[in-house]
Amino acid sequence: MLKQDRSRRTHEVLLDAAAGEFVRHGYAGANLNRIADQVGMSKGALYAHFSSKEDLAGALTKPFDQAWRGLLEEADAVRSDPLGALQCLTFGLAGRLRIDIRFRAGLHLVSEGARAHGEVPTLIDDMTRATTRLVRQAQQQGELKPTHAPEALSSFVVASTFGMYHTMSQQRLDDFLHEARRIWQLVFSSAAACPATPLPRGATVGAPLG
Fold first, then answer.
1. 129-163 exposure pattern, b = at least 16 Cβ within 10 A, e = fewer
2. In order of start, what are the domains of the chain with their CATH numbers?
């Protein structure tokens, strides 16, 4: 039992170290030797937990996909308040990116993989569809004036959220959720405040990266 617990802890530490490496250097630039050095083990010992860099990346992208689907499902469940659902989806994403280094690594990896194939990351397509639907519903229910096309407002929200994340230094990620709220106020000033998002189960808080 003690051996299993020690192996599990090492596995988790490796995932955190790998997440930081992928965020800093991307998949192509990530180096298994650096990851092993960070946790004080040999590269051979690392292979006892993960057979390859691809295997290690998959251990981060799969939970990322699940977490993102969870955020979409939570927004979809708030059917009676589409604007509130959109707010919670946007802030939930921003909050998760701010606090969870593994989630950030997952985003970097899936985005890099999509770009390598000349594709738009699935996350962007998912959020664009969800945002457009919720804006349209909010307009139909009178929560928003139909001044702008749902597609236009959706594009602005999605581009602002991801553009702000990718242009913000890792040291300033503590400001990310605050900045997301500022953008929200500019676009949807009449929206009710979304409850503070607690730390999601399984989220890993990572120190700002240099």
1. ebbbbbbbbbbeeebbeeeeebeebbebbbebbbe
2. 52-187 (1.10.357.10)
pTM over cut 0.70:
yes
Average pLDDT, the chain: 84
The tokens describing 53, both together, are 């860099």
Residue-wise pLDDT tens digits, 8-42: 889 999 999 999 999 999 999 999 999 999 999 99
What pLDDT does 170 receive? Answer: 65
Asked if 91 and 182 touch (Cβ cutoff 8 Å), the reply is no
Written as one letter, the residue type at 33 is N
